[in-house]
Amino acid sequence: MHCAPFIELSRSDLRDKYGLRGALAGVLQPTVALIQPAKLARGMRRVALDCGVRVFENSKVTQVCRGPECRVRTQDGTLTAASVVVALNAWATIFPEIRRGLAVTAAEACVTARVPEILAKLGWSQGPGITDSRRMILNWRATPDGRVEMGKGGGRLAFGSRVAGRFDGGAIRVRQIVEEVALAVPDLKGIDIATSWMGPIDKSFHGLPAASRFPNDENMFYGCGFSGNGVGPSKLIAKILASLVLRRADEYSSLGLAQPLQGTFPREPVRYLGGRCVLAAMNRHDQLDHANQSAGVLTRWLVSKMPGSILPGTVGDDGNAALQEHIPE
What we know:
Helices cover about 25% and strands about 20% of the residues. The chain has about 325 residues and is of the alpha+beta class. It starts with 6 loop residues before the first strand and ends in a 5-residue tail after the last strand.
């Protein structure tokens, strides 16, 4: 039976079913699942090992020697291969061919203390995952052990798209994240936070991932530019990369995502300074939307310079919310 991808929810639906007393309207996506990325990665590792794949962890790569025969040098040895695939997310910007096609910004997240009584009151025992329609998108979900995990993109920006150590440690905007979630869910106002963290996102110019061969190098390939949405498209990108590496002309190598990164960001320091201005304008635009006020010409112009996104919700009323049903493991 065909199931519509979106089911419209009224303001009363959001209030009565999900405790979203601060939302204006929303949609439910009943055909998707919530995934714990770390658990997924561990599961993939287990399956790979069962298939005979050898996994070498904590093997820092010190050099990639290109040519007819690729050599990957590590601290403890050298691997030789016919082809090399670079799948490093934001860390792919160490390669000059990729650097100008990606901007690196931070995604921040925090998790609350255990609050099973609040989750029961909200009806969140079996989900859902919630995403709002801000330009700087906010999301939150219940965890299996009775907590609430909250996250937000568009944080710290990297100079020269270099990751370095600026994206390690706790989140910087914990207070802002909690306050914004509480606008939609007043029951979470002032809730205790157990821990927080942040990590880098590789933001492509058009918001879409890309899988391609390095320019002028027949044996080097890359997949990157997921723009914070890597879990879903990663399987498709992996199939594209497999076809490209094996030189197969098939349905995957001919897909639209099987192409180089499209568009380039300005050179530094314009990229960093301009990016800071755009992020500040987006945050200001969100705040004005919530106050039912119009943004000025300069703010609207800066927001228009934001790179593309594959997520809905970059336009529209900030009070809207998209909910995703939880499919039990």
